[in-house]
Amino acid sequence: MYHFSDNSADLRTTELLTATLAVNTQAATVGETLVYTLTLVNKGAEPAAFDVTDTLPDNLVLVDAPGMTASGQSLTASGTLNSGAQQQFAITVRIHAYHFTVENRAIVRSGAQTQTVSAPVVRIASAAASVHYLPLIMR
């Protein structure tokens, strides 16, 4: 949007597209699934084109991401949101390797605007250890 005052042009940017990234839990173990929800909302008066990239951490395996294209650990989507519209992407992943935490971020671009959104950190607990007792044989 251009704002004119005193015969000079002052370019002000208006954030039209907002993005959030949520996760269904903040504690999990190896083998469990997580569901990340990426939500885009157009708060502007005009349609807003967007491009999204979410590169999944190495210890996650993609299960499903309707509306997104997967290439390795990278998920992408693009489109246009009308004024007041919202778009959600549900990203289901499985934890396949133990790390202390999982941090997932997505990059959302709309026009000249770029946002990096982060989901809450998920703590990964090690799987419960099995204890096996062997018989003691004495001679």
Name the descriptors.
four-stranded antiparallel β-sheet; 0% helix; disordered N terminus; 139 residues; 58% strand; mainly beta; five-stranded antiparallel β-sheet
User: How would you sum up the major sheet?
Assistant: 5 strands, antiparallel
Share in helix = under 10%
Shape: elongated
Gyration radius (Cα, Å) is 22 Å
Q: Give the N-to-C terminal Cα separation.
A: 90 Å
pLDDT averaged over residues: 86
Number of helices: 0
Structural class: mainly beta
Report on the structure:
It is a single chain. This protein has no helices and 14 strands. It is mainly β. The chain has a five-stranded antiparallel β-sheet, with no helix packed on it. A hairpin with a 2-residue loop joins strand 8 and strand 9. The radius of gyration is 22 Å and the shape is elongated.
Summarize this entry quickly.
The chain has 139 residues and is mainly β. It has no helices and 14 strands. It has strands spanning 2-5, 8-11, 17-23, 27-29, 33-42, 48-55, 60-64, 69-71, 74-81, 86-95, 101-102, 105-110, 113-118, 122-125.
